[in-house]
Specification:
Length: 606
């Protein structure tokens, strides 16, 4: 069975057609074709043409190139088989035979061509009135006007072919060159790293006159500029949240001993509104004093200090600097824990846009109780963290593995504590030790294992070799100590094989034998059970002894997070000094007297 002929692609076929037409437009080639046709009719052997077959000597090739002249060398004509074509001489090459078959038909409009051929004696002969047809080359029909070319005289055919072949090429190249800039200019800009500029932006240079009026009406009337506490009016004119006044004052060059004049402020303000068009980019640039496109830990401190100084729910902290510094550190750590999703130690503008930090800062202006804000600024949450840390470190301000093992009634395994104190998750402490900011991250991750950050936190701890997956070996490594803990407590041991089967059935990993970060994030509730099973004995036992028929009360309503539930219960236990506290789903009074407030009141009385 014969193999079907290979067909060229559309692009290559078009190029072959163009080269064939160029070949046919040369007078010397037409004469050679006519001479070859006469030789075929007279049943004489065809000459070996070096210009077409490429089998001649170097001299013949040179003669062929001279005959071609200065025009472009052409490719051999494409295949156009015809059963009616006369048989060519066995000595002729396949390309010549194909050209001969193409030139035998007489049904199409004919043209007079003259071609030279060498007979056996070496003399040259010419034949005239020979017809060539396109009937046997259907793929050349309707392409760049071939029938009209063949109907012309040789001279007309040459000029017409060159004109038709060169004109589209030049026009296409010119159109491509002309359309390239227009097409690129017609594509709208789609990337705005500093926000999309808008014509309706209220923070424009037109507001400088109002800002100037604010500076002229300073409190002392001296015209020496504004102090930090006076920048709330500047924020109001610039349509910025009032708690931005600290970073705005600092970016304008203000310090605790100096004021900011209008001339200095107007320069940074014009520069800011010209290059940065959304709140996220402006906040980052102001917080970094116009020096960076990302935030480090220290850049957040002036903002939080303004909240401490001006929010009515934190007035009681003004006279206790130790608690102020700890509160500011706690809030800054919580912001980095939640917002810095890349774990780089620098909050970028895109990360800030995707977070709720700016909306929370703006929301602080409308709430009177700081405890109503549960994401970053809650004083109750700070109090729980600070007291837990103080109880465990014996006022040494640093924790080691022995101190940390006391957490959650010695519920955490030593294997996981070693990983917690490693550089896998530590951000602010030396390896093997834990300072207060890292303890804040540890508590947030331990008490709420359903958030994306906490899942990443514990995944980093469980991934011993850092290959991006949790293997069965790593699961066994952490569960073995958990199994020993069960035996010490007199609990019926739950074998590793049975535990592994349950974990894999629960997680349903995409890759058999490995659990990835994506698998854990696919279901945060299952991720919490997975982590507690491997390294937290207390929470694992609580989950095993839960009532499986208990349903959440008000499941249709939005439920508080695990961290909010934990902090509420712990805060109530700390301020009341009682161990028997309501459960997480029970109501309780948040207005219980705070030990810090009691200490401050006693100091005032004395």
């Amino acid at each position: 069975m014969s193999t079907p002929p290979h067909r060229l692609s559309a692009c290559l076929e078009m190029k072959v057609d163009e080269l064939f037409l160029r070949f046919m437009s040369e007078e010397s080639n037409i004469e050679k074709l006519q001479e070859s046709l006469a030789a075929i009719k007279s049943e004489q052997p065809l000459p070996k043409l070096s210009t077409t077959t490429g089998t001649g000597t170097a001299g013949e090739a040179s003669t062929g190139r001279d005959a071609m002249g200065a025009s472009r060398k052409s490719s051999p004509p494409p295949r156009a088989p015809s059963p009616s074509s006369p048989a060519a001489s066995p000595k002729s090459s396949p390309r010549v035979r194909r050209a001969a078959r193409l030139a035998t038909a007489v049904t199409a409009p004919s043209i007079e061509i003259t071609a030279e051929s060498d007979d056996a004696s070496g003399t040259r002969s010419k034949s005239a009135d020979t017809s060539i047809s396109t009937a046997h080359a259907p793929h050349l029909q309707n392409k760049v006007g071939l029938p009209s070319i063949l109907a012309s005289t040789p001279a007309e055919s040459t000029s017409t072919t060159h004109r038709m072949l060169s004109t589209p090429s030049s026009s296409s190249s010119s159109s491509a060159s002309s359309s390239s800039p227009s097409s690129s200019s017609s594509i709208p800009r789609f990337y705005f790293p500093y926000g999309r500029p808008t014509d309706n932006d209220t923070c424009t240079s037109a507001s400088l006159s109002e800002i100037r009026a604010v500076f002229e009406l300073s409190d002392d009337g001296s015209g020496m500029g504004l102090a930090k506490h006076e920048f709330d009016r500047v924020c109001s004119v610039c349509n910025l949240p009032v708690y931005w006044k600290g970073i705005l004052f600092r970016a304008a060059g203000g310090t605790s001993k100096t004021r900011v004049k209008f001339s200095g402020f107007s320069q940074i303000w014009k520069r800011l509104i010209k290059q940065y068009h959304d709140p996220a980019s402006r906040f980052v640039r102001l917080s970094s004093r116009l020096q960076s496109d990302s935030l480090v830990f220290q850049d957040l401190l002036p903002l939080i200090q303004c909240v401490v100084d001006d929010h009515p729910g934190l007035f009681f902290l003004r006279d206790c600097k130790e608690f102020i510094n700890s509160y500011i550190s706690t809030v800054a750590t919580r912001i980095f824990y939640t917002v810095n999703r890349s774990w780089s130690g620098r909050i970028s503008i895109p990360e800030l846009r995707r977070s709720t930090l700016l909306s929370v800062i703006e929301k602080l202006e409308t709430i009177n109780s700081i405890n109503d804000e549960l994401e970053f600024f809650s004083y109750e949450h700070f109090y729980v963290m600070y007291c837990k840390f103080s109880e465990m470190n014996n006022h040494r301000r640093i924790l080691d593995i022995h101190d940390l093992s006391e957490y959650d009634e010695y519920g955490l395994t030593r294997a996981i504590l070693k990983r917690v104190l490693s550089k896998a998750v530590l951000r602010y402490s030396k390896e093997g030790l834990m300072e207060y900011p890292d303890f804040v991250c540890f508590m947030l991750a331990e008490e709420d294992k359903t958030t994306s950050t906490s899942i990443e936190y514990w995944f980093r701890c469980l991934d011993l070799d850092g290959d991006g997956v949790i293997s069965m070996y790593e699961i066994e490594h952490f569960y073995n100590e958990q199994l020993d803990h069960m035996q010490r407590e007199g609990m019926e041991p739950f074998g590793f094989n049975d535990c592994l089967c349950q974990l894999l059935d629960m997680m349903r990993p995409q890759k058999p034998g490995y659990i990835t970060l994506r698998d854990l994030k696919a279901c945060s509730i299952h991720a919490k059970i997975f982590f507690n099973t491997l390294f937290n004995y207390t929470k694992f036992v609580a989950h095993e002894h839960r009532d499986p028929f208990t349903k959440d009360i008000g499941s249709n309503q939005e439920q508080p997070s695990d961290w909010v539930k934990f902090a509420s219960v712990e805060y109530l236990a700390m301020v009341t000094g009682e161990d028997d506290v309501p459960k997480e789903d029970e109501e309780f009074d948040n207005d219980t007297e705070d030990p810090v407030l009691m200490a401050l009141a006693q100091s005032e009385e004395s």
